[in-house]
Design brief:
The chain has about 300 residues and is α/β, with parallel strands linked by helices. Helix content is about 35%, strand content about 20%. The longest helix has 18 residues.
Length: about 300
């Protein structure tokens, strides 16, 4: 009982100041990896203080998405230890693990938005971890805080899409709806995976500035993976270079040199230049979304 009380105190403190993160000699495999496949993260040691804003950069296959999945408690490490707010989540009871997950917000690169749902409902779904069963069901039919959803969308230049159906949005608009959810989530750790891949440069700058600024304002810990190195350097105070599942450098943005980047993207120079296909897609290129498999908890 005393141990559970101490855990709750840690969670409540984290809700006010952000979650601190520690990875200790951690190995993890990609969620879709076959049994026996090599680890996507290898002997990773990392500390992120509560309230920090950190960008993870690196070439494709570096382990960035796997790292976010581990931080989101979506999969346990294969070896080593993860600690959030000083607690190993995989030693918690199922009830305490659910409570911890309620403080984590994961925005995947392709947001899992039901195609026929209205945008207002999709944004307000960010509050589901703090709602009971009946309130959650009611919110599907009767949105309870439309002004809050509109205010969140306005930060991403989507105020006019409040009552639009998701399947009528472009790919970039769906990505920004997924980001707007974070502003309503009761989360102290925001985990954002490639949030700019379907955005044009102007909207990418707007979305990134809004996300980092609001995380700082709310003292939320923000960890974002980015292919756009220039955006990472311009918006984040701390940059972690990840390659082959290991940290190649961990530096303040102003100390990241062209030599660091050349080493990180060796044999992947096209990604450093921004020549990859997702960065050149217009916002309407993903206008017809593929069916999305939803996992609810």
């Amino acid at each position: 009982m005393r141990q559970q009380l101490e855990i709750w105190v840690c969670f409540e403190a984290a809700a006010q100041t952000g979650l601190n993160i520690e990875l200790l000699n951690l190995d993890a495999r990609h969620p879709a990896a076959l049994p026996g496949a090599a680890a996507a993260l290898r002997a990773l040691n990392l500390r992120i203080s509560a309230g920090e804003q950190v960008a993870i950069i690196g070439p494709s296959g570096a382990g960035k998405t796997t790292l976010l999945q581990v931080l989101a408690c979506a999969q346990p490490p294969a070896q080593g230890q993860l600690q959030l707010a000083g607690v190993n989540p995989w030693t918690l009871s199922p009830a305490d693990l659910r409570r911890l997950r309620g403080q984590l917000f994961l925005a995947p690169q392709v947001p899992p938005l039901p195609p026929r749902q209205r945008v207002v409902t999709s944004v307000l779904a960010g509050r589901l971890p703090s709602m009971g069963l009946w309130a959650s069901l009611r919110s599907l039919f009767y949105p309870t805080d439309i002004p809050a959803a509109h205010a969140a969308l306005m930060h991403f230049d989507l105020g006019d899409k409040l009552f639009e159906r998701v399947d009528r949005l472009s790919g970039g608009e769906r990505q920004r709806v997924g980001l707007a959810r974070a502003l309503l989530a009761p989360a102290s750790l925001w985990l954002i995976d490639e949030p700019l891949s379907a955005l044009d440069p102007m909207r990418a700058r707007m979305a990134m500035a809004a996300l980092v600024g609001l995380a700082r304002e709310r003292q939320a810990t923000l960890v974002a993976t980015l292919h756009q190195v220039d955006m990472a350097l311009a918006n984040f105070p701390r940059i972690i270079g990840l390659r082959d599942g290991q940290v190649l450098f961990d530096l303040p943005a102003e100390h990241v040199s062209p030599e660091h980047l050349a080493h990180l993207y060796d044999q992947h120079e096209h990604e450093l230049r921004g020549d990859t296909l997702p960065l050149t897609l217009p916002e309407d290129a993903l206008a017809a979304p593929a069916p999305v498999l939803m996992h609810c908890r």
